[in-house]
Amino acid sequence: MSSFWSIWVSVISLGTILGCYLLLRWCLANKTGIEEGDDMHHSFDGIIELNNPLPRWWTIMFYMVLVWGPLYLLLYPGLGNWEGILGWKSSHQNVQSLQESRDAVLQAREEAKDSILGVSVQYDRELMRAEERFAPVFNKYAEQPITALAKNEEALKIGQRLFMQNCSQCHGSDARGQRGFPNLTDNDWLYGGSPEDIKATLINGRGGVMPGWLASFGEKGIDEVVAYTLSLSGRQVDQTLKNAGKQRFAMCAACHGPDGKGNQQLGAPNLTDNIWLYGGTRDAVTETLTNGRAGVMPAFKDTLGEKKIHLVASYVYSLSQEK
Fold this sequence. Notes:
- Its cofactor is heme c.
- The chain crosses the membrane at residues 6-24, 57-76.
- The protein is mainly α.
- It contains 14 helices and four strands.
- The protein folds into four domains: 3-75, no CATH class; 100-141, no CATH class; 144-205 and 299-319, Cytochrome c-like domain (Cytochrome Bc1 Complex, Chain D, domain 2), CATH 1.10.760.10; 208-297, Orthogonal Bundle (Cytochrome Bc1 Complex, Chain D, domain 2).
- A two-stranded antiparallel sheet has the order 1-2. Strands 3-4 form a two-stranded antiparallel ribbon.
- Helix 4 packs across helix 14 (306-319) and helix 9 (214-231) packs antiparallel against helix 12.
- The chain is elongated, with a radius of gyration of 33 Å.
């Protein structure tokens, strides 16, 4: 914050407290010329106004607030760039990466050993309390295989909460996905649905690229390949276009395989099961072949850590298993 705004905030804050004090003093003074308790000669609907002073309990409470206000501003940051006597902060304002955040927490933990005030950053305190409380739980579940945790109700509840916090934005709260984001409940997997594959996806992320083929095939060629691709899942198409598209499909077979059943090593989808990540209409498939697709699944290794990922993987694995 610049010096100008720091001074501006300080003047407004202290000025407001001073203004409240002066207003209270003005309200306590009897400027009506009428004795306290006497009739103010105002009445409404049979109710007569009396010249009564402010309630003492209310006045005392107001004074207490006026004393606490400046005291709070001295102890905690609130007056512009003033950091407060206690040095308390809600968060590290200059942190720009997860590693910097972790380093700051470790530094705070070391400094707390030599300080009677303890950790001064609220975010660090919350992380440290969470670690002390939940680390034993995560350690316990990390020692168990995913297949066992997929049948453990308590572990699944934790995994579900982590999923809702980190994955539902793309895959939906019910994990059924949406256009461009896979359905995690149907046992159709781009990179494999084994516990190990799911965990590897969460740890390292995935990056899928489908190139655009307009320059290679031309518009007519795109129509032909679209017809053949749709036929692989049993759709009714023009036979002439289909036969011509089958010849061109050799270019696509490098990833999707000669039978169109995909390749989980590459993340190439199965084109025969009528499950479409970006839509299975003729227009959607044409758009995919024409312009290509680029999908990114972020890595959660640094965000969650392997032990939490172990629980998320268990929850995701359980979604596609027969109950």
